[in-house]
Design a protein that fits this description.
heterodimer, A: alpha/beta, Rossmann fold, six-stranded mixed beta sheet, 9 strands, 41% helix, binds adenosine-5'-diphosphate, binds magnesium ion
Chain lengths: 246, 248
């Protein structure tokens, strides 16, 4: 029974279950994402955020449930960059284009330059990942995804491990991609600052499903337990101390 | 080494990887540049070790044989005997063991750390089949490099035997080489090469399969390299026996 709203979604999860061995990570997970919005999926460490991105990108298949993606290409900015360590920055970005398209050398090198300029790292083009800081590697990872001209960009913990100014710059980029190229972004994070800075909508993930969702404004103002505890970082801290004790 | 279940599923996934890879090769989906890089890397990494181990094997064998054959007055056969033992069994097996330890372990460590750092996921997200991108070049490289190393190994071992036989029991170089030529047939050399191709391929498959199976954690990258060497050595000896019994 596809309704109007349903037709507009670019990503739709319906009752998705996924277990690793006997551990149920996602339990009847449902959510919708619409074109050109930035949605953050917030949840504590180990709640299944990266797993959701892997389901969207097709790296994992659900045990049951329905995942519908209405987009051609998507890119993924990995948590630690996942740059190909034996290849230069240039080759990291051009590889997928060389391997999966018929673009000419000119077109490809144009795309490489363009996407590196977007993240303002043009000068690193001949460097190897080992020579770059963690933050730079993450931004190259984004450039690598952008070079494919994706309709959806998936970000895994974009601000984790970055100093605040670098994180802020990266978040500015994310907003710019939405405004300039109409990119749909799915951001998974447990960083409250990132959530407040970039989100159009926020989904809070706990115990395998979405326990709260709302706009950025609602996330900031709603005093019900989930967004409130998340905002005050209590939620995250609680989880951290619990983990430390184990 | 794990349960029987694990072993069977491991052999199964190696077999599937082999079939997938052969399909890509048959369709000509081979990255020449990558293959060349892998070939050079594998060859240079192993050459010195192969030459060293094989010269000492040649020396050790002729030390043993020269004295015994002299007692029997059969010095004329030393070359043939060393030649046959080298070409039929020692050169292909020992070179493959060196390649397993040097090249196989390196492939596993490289691919295992690519797995841990999500580089394999990145390939797949971008629509690049990791087997085609990683295994195809390494399979071709190992199947080319190993025969080359094996030939060099055989020559080095036979030459070492020649020098030592000459020094210890005074067999002339020409008598030694004549004996080698008399006993070692072209067919033996071809079978040696065939073994080397098979062993090289097996090492690449095992190393890649093991690398791709690595789960998170630096410890398991270490485990993967050990597993690759152990499984490769077992595969080399098993396949060696099978090929030997097919042809001799
Ligand atoms: N390939 C896997 N095999 C087994 N367990 C996994 C695997 N991937 C993730 N997990 C487990 O699933 C849970 C969710 O993981 P993940 O999605 O990475 O969480 P997050 O990204 O929210 O920190 C964790 O408990 C993790 O240990
Ligand atoms: Mg994660």
């Amino acid at each position: 029974m596809p309704g109007i709203e349903d037709q507009q979604t670019i990503i739709n999860f319906e009752n998705v279950d996924l277990s690793f061995g006997r551990k149920k990570v996602l339990d009847a997970l449902s959510f919708k994402i619409f074109p050109r919005e930035i949605v953050t999926i917030a949840g504590p460490s180990g709640s299944g955020k990266s797993t959701i991105l892997k389901l969207i990108s097709g790296l994992l298949k659900p045990d049951s449930g329905e995942i519908t993606i209405r987009a051609g290409r998507f890119g993924m900015a990995f948590q630690y960059g996942a740059l190909f360590s034996s290849l230069t920055v240039r080759k990291n970005i051009s590889l997928a284009l060389e391997e999966t398209t018929n673009f000419s050398k000119w077109e490809i090198s144009g795309r490489v330059r363009e996407s590196l300029e977007t993240v303002k790292l043009g000068h690193t083009i001949n460097m190897c990942p080992g020579e770059l800081s963690g933050g730079m590697q993450k931004r190259i990872s984004i450039a690598r995804a952008l070079a494919l001209h994706p309709e959806i960009l998936l970000y895994d913990e974009p601000s984790t491990g970055l100093d605040p100014p670098t994180a802020a710059k990266l978040e500015e980029d994310m907003l710019r991609f939405r405004d300039k190229i109409g990119l749909t972004s799915v951001v998974v994070t447990h960083d409250v600052e990132t959530i407040k800075h970039v989100s159009d909508r926020v989904l809070i993930l706990d115990k395998g499903h979405i326990v709260w969702q709302g706009t950025n404004e609602e996330f900031t103002n709603d005093n019900s337990p989930y967004p409130a505890s998340f905002r005050e970082r209590k939620y995250v801290e609680e989880i951290k101390t619990r983990q430390r004790r184990v | 080494m794990g349960s029987l279940n694990e072993i069977v599923s491991y052999i199964g996934s190696s077999g599937i990887n082999l079939l997938e890879t052969l399909k890509f090769i048959a369709r000509g989906r081979v990255n020449i540049e990558n293959t060349a890089v892998q070939t050079v890397k594998a060859g240079i990494g192993s050459l010195f070790i192969v030459v060293t181990t094989q010269s000492f094997i040649g020396l050790a064998m002729s030390t043993q044989l020269a004295k015994e054959f002299e007692k029997l007055g059969a010095e004329a056969f030393i070359g043939g005997f060393i030649g046959l033992a080298t070409v039929r069994e020692l050169a292909p097996v020992i070179s493959a063991i060196v390649v397993a330890g040097r090249v196989g372990a390196a492939i596993s460590a490289e691919i295992g750390s690519m797995k841990v750092t999500e580089q394999i996921d990145a390939l797949r997200v971008f629509g690049i089949n990791p087997l085609r991108y990683l295994l195809v070049p390494r399979l071709i490289a190992a199947s080319m490099v190993n025969p080359l190393l094996t030939i060099i190994a055989a020559i080095v071992s036979i030459m070492a035997g020649m020098v030592l036989s000459n020094a210890s029991v005074d067999v002339s170089y020409s008598a030694y080489l004549n004996s080698v030529r008399q006993f070692v047939m072209v067919r033996d050399v071809f079978i040696m090469m065939f073994k080397a191709v098979v062993f090289g391929g097996a090492i690449a498959i095992i190393a890649t399969t093991t690398g791709l199976e690595v789960k998170n954690g630096a410890e398991s990258v270490g485990n993967a390299t050990t597993k690759t060497v152990v499984w490769s050595i077992m595969a080399i000896f098993t396949l060696n026996y099978i090929i030997t019994s097919m042809f001799f």
